[in-house]
Amino acid sequence: LFRSILDLDRALTELAALDPRKAEMVQLCAFLGCDQREAADVLGISLTTAKLDFRLARARLQQPRARQRAV
Fold it and tell me: What is the 3-state secondary structure (H, E, C) of the chain?
Protein backbone atom coordinates (compact mmCIF):
# COMPACT_ATOMS: atom_id res chain seq x y z
CA LEU A 1 0.00 0.00 0.00
CA PHE A 2 2.68 2.50 1.02
CA ARG A 3 6.18 2.17 -0.40
CA SER A 4 7.79 3.90 2.53
CA ILE A 5 7.08 5.47 5.87
CA LEU A 6 7.39 8.83 4.10
CA ASP A 7 4.50 7.91 1.79
CA LEU A 8 2.40 7.01 4.82
CA ASP A 9 3.36 10.26 6.52
CA ARG A 10 2.37 12.26 3.42
CA ALA A 11 -0.96 10.44 3.20
CA LEU A 12 -1.71 11.12 6.88
CA THR A 13 -0.70 14.76 6.46
CA GLU A 14 -3.07 15.10 3.51
CA LEU A 15 -5.84 13.43 5.51
CA ALA A 16 -5.19 15.76 8.45
CA ALA A 17 -5.54 18.77 6.15
CA LEU A 18 -8.93 17.49 5.01
CA ASP A 19 -10.20 16.08 8.29
CA PRO A 20 -7.97 16.38 11.37
CA ARG A 21 -10.21 14.21 13.57
CA LYS A 22 -10.05 11.27 11.18
CA ALA A 23 -6.28 11.56 10.98
CA GLU A 24 -6.04 11.63 14.77
CA MET A 25 -8.33 8.58 14.94
CA VAL A 26 -5.92 6.66 12.69
CA GLN A 27 -2.94 7.75 14.76
CA LEU A 28 -4.58 6.73 18.02
CA CYS A 29 -5.67 3.31 16.76
CA ALA A 30 -2.89 2.35 14.37
CA PHE A 31 0.15 3.79 16.11
CA LEU A 32 -0.73 4.21 19.78
CA GLY A 33 -2.66 0.96 20.14
CA CYS A 34 -5.96 2.44 21.28
CA ASP A 35 -9.09 0.53 20.47
CA GLN A 36 -11.91 2.51 18.90
CA ARG A 37 -13.71 3.02 22.21
CA GLU A 38 -10.57 4.45 23.82
CA ALA A 39 -9.96 6.70 20.81
CA ALA A 40 -13.57 7.88 20.97
CA ASP A 41 -13.09 8.84 24.62
CA VAL A 42 -9.85 10.71 23.85
CA LEU A 43 -11.51 12.57 20.96
CA GLY A 44 -14.73 13.24 22.87
CA ILE A 45 -16.93 11.55 20.27
CA SER A 46 -19.35 8.65 20.34
CA LEU A 47 -18.18 5.13 19.59
CA THR A 48 -20.44 5.09 16.52
CA THR A 49 -18.77 8.24 15.17
CA ALA A 50 -15.33 6.81 15.95
CA LYS A 51 -16.08 3.64 14.03
CA LEU A 52 -17.35 5.62 11.05
CA ASP A 53 -14.35 7.98 11.14
CA PHE A 54 -11.91 5.08 11.22
CA ARG A 55 -13.67 3.25 8.39
CA LEU A 56 -13.76 6.39 6.20
CA ALA A 57 -10.15 7.30 7.01
CA ARG A 58 -8.95 3.80 6.18
CA ALA A 59 -10.83 3.85 2.88
CA ARG A 60 -9.32 7.24 2.03
CA LEU A 61 -5.81 6.06 2.87
CA GLN A 62 -6.26 2.96 0.72
CA GLN A 63 -7.15 4.98 -2.39
CA PRO A 64 -4.33 5.53 -4.87
CA ARG A 65 -2.96 9.04 -4.39
CA ALA A 66 -3.79 10.19 -7.92
CA ARG A 67 -7.46 9.30 -7.41
CA GLN A 68 -7.53 11.02 -4.02
CA ARG A 69 -6.60 14.33 -5.60
CA ALA A 70 -9.35 13.97 -8.20
CA VAL A 71 -12.04 13.29 -5.58
Answer: CCCCHHHHHHHHHHHHHHCHHHHHHHHHHHHCCCCHHHHHHHHCCCHHHHHHHHHHHHHHHHCCHHHHHHC
pLDDT at 71: 45
In this prediction, residue 37 carries a pLDDT of 97
- Contact between 25 and 39 under an 8 Å Cβ cutoff? The reply is yes
The Cα 16–Cα 1 span in angstroms is: 19
Q: Rounded distance, CA 27 to CA 30, Å? A: 5
Whether the Cβ atoms of residue 14 and residue 68 lie closer than 8 Å to each other: yes
